[in-house]
Predict the structure.
Amino acid sequence: MRYLEDVVLKKWSAAVLAGALAVGALAGCGGDDAGSGDGGGGGGKITMGFSQVGAESGWRTANTKSIQESAATAGIDLKFSDAQGKQENQIKAIRSFIAQRVDVIAFSPVVESGWDTVLKEAKDANIPVILTDRSVDSQDKSLYKTFIGSDFVLEGKKAGEWLVKEYEGKTGDVNIVELQGSPGAAPANDRKAGFAEVIKADPKFKVIASQTGQFTRTDGKEVMEAFLKAHPKIDVLYAHNDDMGLGAIEAIEAAGKKPGTDIKIITVDAVKDGMTALAAGKINYIVECSPLLGPQLMDLAKKVKAGDTVEQRVLTEETTFTQEQAKAALPDRKY
Ligand code: AHR
Protein backbone atom coordinates (compact mmCIF):
# COMPACT_ATOMS: atom_id res chain seq x y z
CA MET A 1 0.00 0.00 0.00
CA ARG A 2 2.84 2.40 1.01
CA TYR A 3 4.61 1.44 -2.27
CA LEU A 4 1.49 2.29 -4.24
CA GLU A 5 1.20 5.72 -2.54
CA ASP A 6 4.87 6.46 -3.35
CA VAL A 7 4.35 5.58 -7.00
CA VAL A 8 1.21 7.72 -7.28
CA LEU A 9 2.93 10.65 -5.53
CA LYS A 10 6.01 10.45 -7.78
CA LYS A 11 3.85 10.30 -10.92
CA TRP A 12 1.77 13.28 -9.74
CA SER A 13 4.90 15.35 -8.91
CA ALA A 14 6.42 14.54 -12.31
CA ALA A 15 3.20 15.60 -14.08
CA VAL A 16 3.02 18.90 -12.17
CA LEU A 17 6.72 19.60 -12.87
CA ALA A 18 6.30 18.79 -16.59
CA GLY A 19 3.25 21.10 -16.78
CA ALA A 20 5.12 23.95 -15.10
CA LEU A 21 8.12 23.49 -17.39
CA ALA A 22 5.89 23.50 -20.48
CA VAL A 23 4.26 26.79 -19.45
CA GLY A 24 7.65 28.31 -18.68
CA ALA A 25 9.14 27.22 -22.01
CA LEU A 26 6.18 28.52 -23.98
CA ALA A 27 6.29 31.89 -22.28
CA GLY A 28 10.05 32.12 -22.75
CA CYS A 29 10.06 32.50 -18.99
CA GLY A 30 13.22 33.84 -17.38
CA GLY A 31 14.30 35.23 -14.05
CA ASP A 32 13.87 33.67 -10.65
CA ASP A 33 10.73 35.42 -9.45
CA ALA A 34 8.24 33.81 -11.82
CA GLY A 35 4.67 34.35 -10.74
CA SER A 36 5.58 37.18 -8.37
CA GLY A 37 2.62 39.31 -9.49
CA ASP A 38 -0.36 40.06 -7.29
CA GLY A 39 -1.96 36.69 -7.68
CA GLY A 40 1.43 34.95 -7.32
CA GLY A 41 1.83 36.35 -3.84
CA GLY A 42 5.41 37.69 -4.42
CA GLY A 43 7.07 41.08 -3.64
CA GLY A 44 6.45 44.51 -5.17
CA LYS A 45 8.14 44.00 -8.57
CA ILE A 46 5.75 44.17 -11.53
CA THR A 47 5.70 41.09 -13.73
CA MET A 48 4.77 41.60 -17.38
CA GLY A 49 4.01 38.80 -19.83
CA PHE A 50 4.77 40.02 -23.34
CA SER A 51 3.90 38.15 -26.53
CA GLN A 52 5.79 39.42 -29.56
CA VAL A 53 4.77 38.81 -33.20
CA GLY A 54 8.10 37.28 -34.22
CA ALA A 55 11.33 38.48 -35.81
CA GLU A 56 10.15 39.16 -39.35
CA SER A 57 11.77 42.57 -39.90
CA GLY A 58 14.36 45.12 -38.80
CA TRP A 59 11.49 47.05 -37.24
CA ARG A 60 10.51 44.06 -35.12
CA THR A 61 14.09 43.49 -33.93
CA ALA A 62 14.31 47.14 -32.84
CA ASN A 63 10.90 46.88 -31.13
CA THR A 64 11.92 43.77 -29.17
CA LYS A 65 15.16 45.46 -28.07
CA SER A 66 13.25 48.57 -26.96
CA ILE A 67 10.82 46.49 -24.87
CA GLN A 68 13.51 44.32 -23.26
CA GLU A 69 15.80 47.26 -22.44
CA SER A 70 12.97 49.44 -21.11
CA ALA A 71 11.69 46.63 -18.88
CA ALA A 72 15.18 46.23 -17.38
CA THR A 73 15.49 50.00 -16.85
CA ALA A 74 12.01 50.24 -15.28
CA GLY A 75 12.69 47.26 -12.99
CA ILE A 76 9.88 45.23 -14.55
CA ASP A 77 10.22 41.45 -14.65
CA LEU A 78 9.57 40.64 -18.32
CA LYS A 79 8.42 37.23 -19.47
CA PHE A 80 9.03 37.43 -23.20
CA SER A 81 7.48 35.04 -25.69
CA ASP A 82 8.09 34.96 -29.47
CA ALA A 83 4.98 33.80 -31.39
CA GLN A 84 6.89 33.16 -34.62
CA GLY A 85 4.15 34.81 -36.63
CA LYS A 86 1.37 32.50 -35.39
CA GLN A 87 -1.79 33.62 -33.62
CA GLU A 88 -2.21 30.22 -31.93
CA ASN A 89 1.20 30.66 -30.26
CA GLN A 90 0.14 34.06 -28.95
CA ILE A 91 -3.09 32.64 -27.54
CA LYS A 92 -1.10 29.86 -25.80
CA ALA A 93 1.38 32.39 -24.41
CA ILE A 94 -1.41 34.62 -23.08
CA ARG A 95 -3.04 31.62 -21.39
CA SER A 96 0.28 30.68 -19.83
CA PHE A 97 0.71 34.26 -18.54
CA ILE A 98 -2.76 34.02 -17.00
CA ALA A 99 -1.81 30.70 -15.36
CA GLN A 100 1.34 32.31 -13.97
CA ARG A 101 -0.70 35.23 -12.58
CA VAL A 102 1.47 37.96 -14.10
CA ASP A 103 0.53 41.54 -13.17
CA VAL A 104 0.10 42.82 -16.73
CA ILE A 105 -0.15 41.18 -20.14
CA ALA A 106 1.05 43.10 -23.19
CA PHE A 107 1.10 41.89 -26.76
CA SER A 108 1.40 42.94 -30.36
CA PRO A 109 -1.31 40.94 -32.16
CA VAL A 110 -0.19 38.99 -35.24
CA VAL A 111 -3.63 39.53 -36.79
CA GLU A 112 -6.56 41.82 -35.93
CA SER A 113 -9.36 39.28 -35.45
CA GLY A 114 -10.11 36.38 -33.13
CA TRP A 115 -9.03 37.67 -29.71
CA ASP A 116 -12.29 38.01 -27.78
CA THR A 117 -12.20 34.63 -26.00
CA VAL A 118 -8.66 34.84 -24.67
CA LEU A 119 -9.01 38.53 -23.77
CA LYS A 120 -12.14 37.66 -21.82
CA GLU A 121 -10.17 34.98 -19.96
CA ALA A 122 -7.58 37.61 -18.96
CA LYS A 123 -10.33 40.00 -17.87
CA ASP A 124 -12.05 37.29 -15.80
CA ALA A 125 -8.69 36.57 -14.14
CA ASN A 126 -8.41 40.31 -13.37
CA ILE A 127 -5.18 40.72 -15.34
CA PRO A 128 -5.03 43.98 -17.34
CA VAL A 129 -4.05 43.79 -21.00
CA ILE A 130 -2.15 46.44 -22.96
CA LEU A 131 -2.06 46.26 -26.76
CA THR A 132 1.18 47.49 -28.29
CA ASP A 133 2.02 48.34 -31.90
CA ARG A 134 -1.07 46.64 -33.41
CA SER A 135 -4.70 46.67 -32.35
CA VAL A 136 -7.51 44.10 -32.39
CA ASP A 137 -10.98 44.43 -33.92
CA SER A 138 -12.85 43.44 -30.72
CA GLN A 139 -15.98 45.52 -30.25
CA ASP A 140 -15.76 45.26 -26.47
CA LYS A 141 -13.14 47.88 -25.61
CA SER A 142 -13.23 46.86 -21.93
CA LEU A 143 -11.21 43.76 -22.88
CA TYR A 144 -8.00 45.83 -22.87
CA LYS A 145 -6.86 48.88 -20.93
CA THR A 146 -5.11 50.80 -23.66
CA PHE A 147 -3.52 50.56 -27.10
CA ILE A 148 -0.18 52.21 -27.77
CA GLY A 149 1.03 52.41 -31.36
CA SER A 150 0.96 54.14 -34.73
CA ASP A 151 -1.93 55.24 -36.90
CA PHE A 152 -1.38 52.82 -39.80
CA VAL A 153 -4.15 54.33 -41.95
CA LEU A 154 -2.42 57.70 -41.68
CA GLU A 155 0.87 56.08 -42.71
CA GLY A 156 -0.79 54.73 -45.86
CA LYS A 157 -2.28 58.14 -46.56
CA LYS A 158 1.12 59.83 -46.24
CA ALA A 159 2.55 57.36 -48.77
CA GLY A 160 -0.32 58.15 -51.16
CA GLU A 161 0.04 61.91 -50.68
CA TRP A 162 3.72 61.82 -51.62
CA LEU A 163 2.83 59.91 -54.80
CA VAL A 164 0.06 62.32 -55.78
CA LYS A 165 2.48 65.25 -55.38
CA GLU A 166 5.27 63.48 -57.26
CA TYR A 167 3.01 62.97 -60.30
CA GLU A 168 1.22 66.33 -60.08
CA GLY A 169 0.57 67.78 -63.54
CA LYS A 170 1.82 64.62 -65.28
CA THR A 171 -0.46 62.71 -67.62
CA GLY A 172 -0.61 59.01 -68.55
CA ASP A 173 -1.21 55.97 -66.39
CA VAL A 174 0.97 55.39 -63.34
CA ASN A 175 1.28 51.63 -62.84
CA ILE A 176 1.70 50.73 -59.18
CA VAL A 177 2.59 47.39 -57.61
CA GLU A 178 1.98 46.88 -53.91
CA LEU A 179 3.75 44.57 -51.47
CA GLN A 180 1.36 44.03 -48.57
CA GLY A 181 2.31 43.05 -45.04
CA SER A 182 1.24 39.71 -43.54
CA PRO A 183 -2.43 38.88 -44.25
CA GLY A 184 -4.88 40.00 -41.58
CA ALA A 185 -2.34 42.17 -39.74
CA ALA A 186 -3.53 45.66 -38.81
CA PRO A 187 -0.61 47.45 -40.55
CA ALA A 188 -1.26 45.50 -43.76
CA ASN A 189 -5.00 46.22 -43.75
CA ASP A 190 -4.65 49.87 -42.76
CA ARG A 191 -1.64 50.88 -44.87
CA LYS A 192 -3.43 49.43 -47.91
CA ALA A 193 -6.67 51.24 -47.08
CA GLY A 194 -5.04 54.63 -46.35
CA PHE A 195 -3.02 54.56 -49.57
CA ALA A 196 -6.02 53.48 -51.68
CA GLU A 197 -8.18 56.24 -50.22
CA VAL A 198 -5.75 58.97 -51.29
CA ILE A 199 -4.84 57.74 -54.77
CA LYS A 200 -8.43 56.97 -55.79
CA ALA A 201 -8.95 60.72 -56.35
CA ASP A 202 -6.99 60.48 -59.61
CA PRO A 203 -7.80 57.63 -62.06
CA LYS A 204 -4.32 57.74 -63.59
CA PHE A 205 -3.06 55.82 -60.54
CA LYS A 206 -3.56 52.14 -61.20
CA VAL A 207 -2.65 49.41 -58.72
CA ILE A 208 -1.90 46.68 -61.26
CA ALA A 209 -0.79 44.05 -58.72
CA SER A 210 -1.02 43.72 -54.95
CA GLN A 211 0.21 40.73 -53.00
CA THR A 212 1.59 39.85 -49.59
CA GLY A 213 5.34 39.84 -49.02
CA GLN A 214 4.82 38.82 -45.35
CA PHE A 215 6.82 41.84 -44.12
CA THR A 216 10.06 39.95 -44.95
CA ARG A 217 12.94 40.63 -47.33
CA THR A 218 12.85 37.11 -48.78
CA ASP A 219 9.18 37.26 -49.71
CA GLY A 220 9.47 40.86 -50.88
CA LYS A 221 12.17 39.80 -53.32
CA GLU A 222 10.30 36.73 -54.55
CA VAL A 223 7.01 38.54 -55.11
CA MET A 224 8.74 41.46 -56.85
CA GLU A 225 10.46 38.98 -59.20
CA ALA A 226 7.02 37.65 -60.12
CA PHE A 227 5.62 41.19 -60.57
CA LEU A 228 8.51 42.09 -62.90
CA LYS A 229 7.94 38.99 -65.01
CA ALA A 230 4.19 39.56 -65.27
CA HIS A 231 4.18 43.35 -65.83
CA PRO A 232 6.53 44.95 -68.38
CA LYS A 233 5.67 48.51 -67.25
CA ILE A 234 5.90 49.15 -63.52
CA ASP A 235 6.29 52.80 -62.49
CA VAL A 236 5.95 52.61 -58.72
CA LEU A 237 6.39 50.11 -55.91
CA TYR A 238 4.56 50.73 -52.65
CA ALA A 239 5.88 48.33 -49.96
CA HIS A 240 4.21 48.19 -46.54
CA ASN A 241 7.63 48.03 -44.87
CA ASP A 242 11.33 48.67 -45.55
CA ASP A 243 12.33 45.01 -45.49
CA MET A 244 10.02 44.05 -48.36
CA GLY A 245 11.20 47.15 -50.25
CA LEU A 246 14.83 46.13 -49.74
CA GLY A 247 14.13 42.61 -51.00
CA ALA A 248 12.33 44.10 -54.00
CA ILE A 249 15.35 46.32 -54.76
CA GLU A 250 17.46 43.17 -55.18
CA ALA A 251 14.88 41.78 -57.63
CA ILE A 252 14.72 45.07 -59.57
CA GLU A 253 18.52 45.27 -59.87
CA ALA A 254 18.70 41.60 -60.93
CA ALA A 255 16.19 42.43 -63.68
CA GLY A 256 18.58 45.13 -64.97
CA LYS A 257 16.50 48.11 -63.75
CA LYS A 258 17.47 50.99 -61.52
CA PRO A 259 15.47 51.15 -58.25
CA GLY A 260 14.44 54.69 -57.36
CA THR A 261 14.77 55.81 -61.00
CA ASP A 262 13.16 53.25 -63.35
CA ILE A 263 10.77 52.26 -60.58
CA LYS A 264 9.98 54.73 -57.82
CA ILE A 265 9.78 53.15 -54.37
CA ILE A 266 7.82 54.16 -51.27
CA THR A 267 8.16 52.17 -48.05
CA VAL A 268 7.13 52.40 -44.38
CA ASP A 269 9.25 52.09 -41.17
CA ALA A 270 12.51 54.09 -41.61
CA VAL A 271 14.89 51.52 -40.09
CA LYS A 272 18.61 52.11 -40.73
CA ASP A 273 18.83 49.82 -43.79
CA GLY A 274 15.81 51.50 -45.35
CA MET A 275 17.19 54.96 -44.62
CA THR A 276 20.55 53.95 -46.14
CA ALA A 277 18.78 52.88 -49.34
CA LEU A 278 16.80 56.15 -49.33
CA ALA A 279 19.99 58.20 -48.88
CA ALA A 280 21.50 56.27 -51.82
CA GLY A 281 18.48 57.08 -54.02
CA LYS A 282 17.25 53.48 -54.27
CA ILE A 283 14.11 54.30 -52.28
CA ASN A 284 12.35 57.63 -52.94
CA TYR A 285 10.27 58.19 -49.80
CA ILE A 286 9.81 56.56 -46.40
CA VAL A 287 6.93 57.00 -43.98
CA GLU A 288 8.18 56.52 -40.45
CA CYS A 289 6.71 53.96 -38.05
CA SER A 290 8.48 54.07 -34.71
CA PRO A 291 9.40 50.78 -33.00
CA LEU A 292 10.61 52.48 -29.82
CA LEU A 293 7.51 51.74 -27.78
CA GLY A 294 9.27 50.26 -24.74
CA PRO A 295 9.54 53.28 -22.39
CA GLN A 296 5.89 54.33 -22.84
CA LEU A 297 4.72 50.73 -22.48
CA MET A 298 6.52 50.34 -19.14
CA ASP A 299 5.02 53.64 -17.88
CA LEU A 300 1.55 52.49 -18.87
CA ALA A 301 2.09 49.12 -17.16
CA LYS A 302 3.02 50.87 -13.92
CA LYS A 303 -0.04 53.13 -14.12
CA VAL A 304 -2.39 50.27 -14.92
CA LYS A 305 -0.97 48.21 -12.03
CA ALA A 306 -1.43 51.17 -9.68
CA GLY A 307 -5.06 51.44 -10.76
CA ASP A 308 -4.55 54.85 -12.42
CA THR A 309 -6.72 55.78 -15.39
CA VAL A 310 -4.93 55.63 -18.73
CA GLU A 311 -5.94 56.91 -22.17
CA GLN A 312 -7.71 54.24 -24.27
CA ARG A 313 -5.44 55.17 -27.20
CA VAL A 314 -1.82 56.37 -27.04
CA LEU A 315 -0.57 57.53 -30.42
CA THR A 316 3.07 57.29 -31.48
CA GLU A 317 4.69 60.43 -32.92
CA GLU A 318 6.08 59.93 -36.40
CA THR A 319 7.42 61.77 -39.43
CA THR A 320 8.34 61.12 -43.08
CA PHE A 321 11.70 61.15 -44.90
CA THR A 322 12.90 62.35 -48.30
CA GLN A 323 16.37 61.54 -49.56
CA GLU A 324 17.90 64.72 -48.10
CA GLN A 325 16.19 64.22 -44.75
CA ALA A 326 17.43 60.61 -44.61
CA LYS A 327 21.01 61.74 -45.23
CA ALA A 328 20.72 64.20 -42.36
CA ALA A 329 19.07 61.73 -39.97
CA LEU A 330 21.25 58.67 -40.68
CA PRO A 331 24.27 59.45 -38.48
CA ASP A 332 22.03 59.50 -35.37
CA ARG A 333 19.69 56.70 -36.37
CA LYS A 334 19.72 54.16 -33.54
CA TYR A 335 18.02 51.24 -35.28
O1 AHR B 1 3.37 46.32 -36.87
C1 AHR B 1 4.44 47.03 -37.35
C2 AHR B 1 4.97 46.42 -38.61
O2 AHR B 1 5.33 45.08 -38.38
C3 AHR B 1 6.21 47.05 -39.18
O3 AHR B 1 5.94 48.14 -40.00
C4 AHR B 1 6.77 45.92 -39.96
O4 AHR B 1 8.08 46.10 -40.39
C5 AHR B 1 6.61 44.86 -38.94
O5 AHR B 1 6.90 43.64 -39.30
